Amino acid sequence: MAEKLINEGMKFEYNYSATQQQEIENIRNKYLPKEENKMETLRKLDKSAEKPGMITSLAVGIIGTLLLGVGMCCTMVWSDSFFVLGIIVGIIGIGVASIAYPLYRKITRKQRAKVAEQILALSEEIAK
Q1: What pLDDT digit, counting tens, does each position of 26-53 carry?
Q2: In this predicted model, what pLDDT tens digit does every residue of 58-116 receive, in sequence order?
Q3: Residues 73, 77, 79, CA angle at the centre, nearest 5°?
Q4: Who contacts 68 (Cβ-Cβ below 8 Å, separation ≥6)?
Q5: How far apart are CA 98 and CA 57, in angstroms?
Q6: Has this prediction a pTM greater than 0.70?
Q7: DSSP character at residue 8
Q8: What is the spatial distance between Cα 111 and Cα 94, in angstroms, rounded to a whole number?
Q9: pLDDT-derived band at 1, boundaries 50, 70, 90
Q10: Which whole-number Å values give the CA distances from 105 to 50, 54, 58, 61, 112, in the listed order?
Q11: How many other CB atoms sit within 10 Å of the CB of residue 42?
């Protein structure tokens, strides 16, 4: 019988692609109603504790770096008239950039203290 199917030009084809199945599953999950599981909630709480400190420290670090750059520009390009001002602005920029990481740690520590009770309760619940 199988020979007859092959001879008549009818054949069985099966295509399976793991990446295609994964893509189908990803698209399908976009349209399913979201179920808030406890592990996802725990991850969101952890990220919410770090985000404010990260944003603030990045802004402070960028401002400090820009001030350092302006100071360097003043000392190298306009050295005849803005040399001393460039050194002062550059030192201020170094100081501002150097407080970015301690600022991040301080803000993150405060945010973690705010959500610590929720995270500990949720993690105990998940661990059981």
Answers
A1: 888 888 877 778 888 888 999 999 999 9
A2: 999 999 999 999 999 999 998 889 999 999 999 999 999 999 999 999 999 999 999 99
A3: 100
A4: 89, 90, 93, 94, 97
A5: 10
A6: no
A7: T
A8: 27
A9: very low
A10: 9, 9, 12, 14, 10
A11: 16
Question: Using an 8 Å Cβ cutoff, are 39 and 126 in contact?
Answer: yes
Locate 120 and state its tokens: 């500990």
Cβ contact 42:122 at 8 Å: yes
Alpha helices in the chain (DSSP H): 2-7, 18-31, 38-76, 79-98, 100-127
Tell me the C-alpha distance between 21 and 81, whole Å. 67
Amino acid identity, position 21: Q
Domain boundaries, the chain: 36-127
- State in Å, rounded, how far the first CA of the chain is from the last one: 58
